[in-house]
């Protein structure tokens, strides 16, 4: 059987969602503030629209989910995690949702998220 040379989880410019999920997220001060729970892809363009960051709670109870526009995440190779331009207090005031609130329709919360982080909407 031939051995495949296909990169399954990382190349020089791409990374699989499986490898991103679970990656720690840090503030610019270096404080761990959460982890990437999942990434969401735009169905029409194929671009990453946002990452869902899990924050707070204890053992999964009371955890809130913060949709972060992908453009605010910057990968830091030294930390092996993503850095966002937030401190913990700003994150606590950011739009966050329960798992049920995220639901199947992001139209209800995607504009407040884009506005809060002052980034262009991914859907435009």
Describe the protein.
With 124 residues, this protein is α+β, with helices and mostly antiparallel strands. It has one domain (17-111): PRC-barrel domain (SH3 type barrels, Roll), CATH 2.30.30. The protein has 4 helices and 6 strands. The chain has helices at residues 17-20, 88-92, 99-102, 110-116; strands at 24-27, 32-41, 48-55, 64-69, 74-76, 81-84. The chain has a 6-stranded mixed beta sheet with strand order 4-3-2-1-6-5. A hairpin with a 4-residue loop joins strand 1 (24-27) and strand 2 (32-41). It is globular, with a radius of gyration of 15 Å. The termini are far apart.
Give me some keywords for this one:
alpha+beta; 6-stranded mixed sheet; 4 helices; SH3 type barrels; 124 residues
**Helical/strand content category:** alpha+beta
What would you call the shape?
Answer: globular
Rounded mean pLDDT score: 83
- Count of beta strands: 6
What would CATH call the class? Mainly Beta
Strand order within the widest beta sheet: 4-3-2-1-6-5
Give the strand content: 25-35%
Q: Given the structure, what is the number of helices?
A: 4
Residue share in helices? 10-25%
The tally of domains stands at 1
Secondary-structure map with pairings?
Blueprint: H1 17-20, E1 24-27, E2 32-41, E3 48-55, E4 64-69, E5 74-76, E6 81-84, H2 88-92, H3 99-102, H4 110-116
Parallel strand pairs: 1-6
Antiparallel strand pairs: 1-2, 2-3, 3-4, 5-6
Q: What is the structure about, briefly put?
A:
The chain has helices at 17-20, 88-92, 99-102, 110-116; strands at residues 24-27, 32-41, 48-55, 64-69, 74-76, 81-84. It has 124 residues and is of the alpha+beta class. A six-stranded mixed β-sheet has the order 4-3-2-1-6-5.
């Amino acid at each position: 059987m031939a051995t495949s040379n296909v990169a399954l989880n990382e190349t020089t410019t791409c990374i699989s969602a499986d490898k991103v999920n679970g990656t720690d997220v840090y503030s610019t001060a270096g404080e761990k503030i959460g982890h990437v729970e999942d990434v969401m892809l735009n169905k029409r363009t194929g671009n990453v629209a946002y990452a869902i960051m899990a924050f707070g709670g204890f053992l999964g109870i009371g955890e809130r989910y913060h949709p972060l526009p992908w453009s605010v995440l910057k990968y830091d190779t030294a930390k092996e995690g993503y850095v966002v331009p937030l401190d913990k207090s700003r994150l606590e005031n950011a739009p966050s949702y329960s798992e049920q609130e995220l639901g199947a329709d992001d139209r209800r919360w995607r504009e407040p998220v884009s506005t809060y982080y002052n980034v262009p909407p991914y859907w435009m």
